[in-house]
Amino acid sequence: MNPSLYIVIPCYNEQEVLPITAPMFLEKLRSLSAAGKISDESRVLFVNDGSKDKTWEIIRGLAAADPHYLGICQSRNRGHQNAVLAGLMEAKDRCDITISIDCDGQDDINAMDAMVDAYLAGCDVVYGVRSSRETDTFFKRATAQGFYKFLSGMGAEVVYNHADYRLISSRVLQEFANFKEVNLFLRGLIPLVGFKSTTVEYARAERLAGKSHYPLKKMIGLAVDGITSLSVKPLRLITGFGVFVAFFSFIGCLWALITALCGKAVAGWASMTCIVCFVSGVQLICLGIIGEYIGKIYLETKGRPRYIISERSWEERDRQASAPKAGERGPEGS
pLDDT per residue over 193-233, tens digit each? Predict the structure, then answer.
């Protein structure tokens, strides 16, 4: 029996690009079904992440027009990672495999064929990996590649040049549901689950319409979440640096004491001021890093829900199907 596939697509203010990419996702679903790789029970699942435009109205219209489209709506904007998680958790009990992909059309949907082939060959996780970053600016390319290398250096297990385009089997999602982190960094958490995995390379294109919702500020925030969620090495580094500074400070104190006992004046108030400022700056940086971890602990201990779904497109369809048709009498009138 062919596996059922759910394509999970997070959406935030995507009214411009959604009418373009939605038919593309449906066509890919149909082509995989026609090739005998997936079942006709497969679906395209949109996750509206509290959009302020007409994104949810478009999703509802798509779901009403074709049963292969499904949609869920979060009660408010929770961010890209939470939207992907909401879609995956909603789909895990309804299908055999999921593929998460962004709505903007930049990720090559034809890579899904190779992903499904890898799943049929025995892999439970298939990571979509960019073959190049020629479409990125020099700054974005340098920072992104540096970020992956830095994460690896911090001891985090991440797949190089992989974002959130991946195939995950339902049994992996069942195990992943046991991960209760509030601070989500999915591209680092999924490898922790284990199971057999592989990669599929693809070329990333330009956005088909609309504008990016991931400015530099959000990318920096995601990087901080990734580092602090997956590694405690920064704490160990500042501890080591603190020992290093303390050692040389102790040497400086000995030097000052010896020169004072020898009756030699310790000249140079400017150098002393520089040292004090330097040590104070180091202390503030260390306190900031420690504070970031304490803040993460504070959020985790609250145990707040990571997403809240306010609407589901199929619930509306079920209500319409169960409502009495015109001219029919309800049960209370029989």
Answer: 888 989 888 887 766 565 655 556 666 666 676 666 666 66
Beta bridge partners of 326: none
Compute the distance between CA of residue 160 and CA of residue 71 in angstroms, rounded to an integer. 31
Do both 180 and 294 map to the same domain?
no
How many angstroms separate the CA atoms of 264 and 71, rounded? 79
* Residue-level length of the chain: 334
User: Rounded to an integer, what distance in angstroms lies between the CA atom of residue 28 and that of residue 318?
Assistant: 26
Give Cα 122 to chain centroid, integer Å.
Answer: 25
Distance CA 316, CA 291 (A): 45
Angle in degrees, CA 218, 224, 229, rounded to 5: 125
Number of Cβ within 10 Å of residue 264's Cβ equals 9
Compute the distance between CA of residue 221 and CA of residue 201 in angstroms, rounded to an integer: 26
pTM, 2 dp: 0.72
Q: Find residue 73's DSSP bridge partners.
A: 48, 311
Tens of pLDDT, residues 12-35 = 988 888 999 999 999 999 999 988
Percentage of the chain with pLDDT > 90?
24
- Cβ neighbors of 268 (< 8 A, separation 6 or more) are none
Please report, as a single letter, which amino acid is at residue 331.
Answer: P
Cα–chain center distance at 184: 7
Our count of domains for the chain comes to 2
Q: Is residue 124 part of a domain?
A: yes
Beta carbons within 8 Å of 310's beta carbon, 6+ residues apart: 73, 74, 75
- Asked if 112 and 119 touch (Cβ cutoff 8 Å), the reply is no
Q: Quote the CA–CA distance of 186 and 151 in Å, as a whole number.
A: 14
Question: In the chain, how long is the greatest CA-to-CA distance?
Answer: 111
Domain around 248: 233-302
Clarify whether residues 19 and 162 are in a common domain: yes
- The DSSP symbol for 43 reads E
Q: Is residue 207 part of a domain?
A: yes
Q: How does 184-218 read in b/e, with b if 16+ C-beta sit within 10 Å? A: bbbbbbbbebeeebbbbebebeebeebeebeeeee
Is 127 inside a domain boundary? yes
